[in-house]
Amino acid sequence: MNETSTLRVTRRTIARRRGFWATFLMGAAVMAAVDEIVFHQLLRWHHFYDRSTTDVGLVSDGVLHAVELVALVAGFFLLADALRRGAVDALTMWSGFFVGAGTFQIWDGLVDHKLLRVHQVRYDVVLLPYDVAWVAAGVVLLVLGLLLGRRADGERST
Amino acid sequence: MTDATVVPVMSGVLSVTREHDHGGAVIGVAWLLLLPLALAAVAYLGAAAAERSHGRRAWPWYRDVAWSAGLAIVAATLVGPLADAAHEDLAAHMVAHLLAGMLAPLLLVAAAPVTLALRSLDVGPARRLSRLLASAPLRVLTHPVVAATIAVGSLWLLYATPLAAAMRDVPLVHELVIVHVVIAGYLFTASIVSVDPAPHRAGYPLRLGVLVLAIAAHSVLAKHVFAVAPTGTAIVEAERAGLVMYYGGDAVELVLLIAFFAEWYRSAGRRLRVGERRALPGPG
């Protein structure tokens, strides 16, 4: 392998890795947006703020909200950057998207709802099935993303 | 329970101040503040027109639009129906603040007034202006950490302390606060995105970190306003104000984020092209 082709291979690896993290950010931000639009605005299951939150919870919620907003924009530009550096295969990008979406959903269900008690999935109902469904949906998305990632690796090595 | 004792005393003092003041004088000051805005509009549009007629490079029309719109928005928060409503209702007041402290500064920064000034001024004044821009005080004020602390910190002072009540009851405070948020908002926006030249621009990671913290602080404060109504404000009114601050802030922050990342993306592209030319000799 001469120097130029080594350089091309490294560049493709960098592009792929960036493509993964770009779509990871986009997946997490899209999941956050779905949460905001469907559950806060349309169904009105969640409360904007139910006044039972701890101060730490409120601050961490603020930081998370800022990171979501940044992730959405950063994801698009990072993906554009990855694509101008080299080709990124579709499987890697979908893998990043679902891993990001699943990670956010699990984080939201466990840390935001249960640990910090920012707000609950729904009010005046038995919460457990809602909490289980919330986190299970996250696990499904995460596993799907990881499987797609493995397939992407497999297709490259053959 | 210190708040409960302080507040009646505060509002007592404030209402006395109000009774002694004449309504006419207050309106006069708000209108008086339109004068510098009008001067700024005339100076900018005049310089832009001159630049277009005999400048070497044409001055883009959208910068004129941005500058005019920014000034018009500031004017609308000082006089007119929105300014009147802002005295009565905290949600309307919050709309005025979002416009004056976030949207107007974004438009004014996008208009690149410093670049226009440097191009249209004579060599002597232009040199003085660039020396002023590089001076220590401005270097400190336009540092992202300082600018963000001023912009977000003063909001916390306004809405988490009895100052919120003073803003509505004491004449002139509303106008002074508007002037303050326009300037603080301008410095913050200019410290995050480079439209105008800045001799000591902070790096991208630092600017991104400041941006994340500023957005976080803004959303936490919005929820604070929602949950703990500022003194003298009804809960329902404070809830509406909190929502306006939260979602309205998001909208402007999204635009600021796009501008910031677009700048980072472009400069990374320039470095990428230079790196390619070095790594792969020959065309390609």
UniProtKB/TrEMBL annotation, chain A:
Question: Keywords assigned by UniProt?
Answer: Membrane, Transmembrane, Transmembrane helix
User: Any transmembrane segments, and where?
Assistant: 20-43, 63-80, 87-107, 127-148
Q: Which superkingdom heads the taxonomic lineage of this protein's source? A: Bacteria
Q: What InterPro entries would the database entry show?
A: DUF2243_membrane (IPR018719)
Q: Which organism is it from?
A: Labedella populi
Q: What is this protein called?
A: DUF2243 domain-containing protein
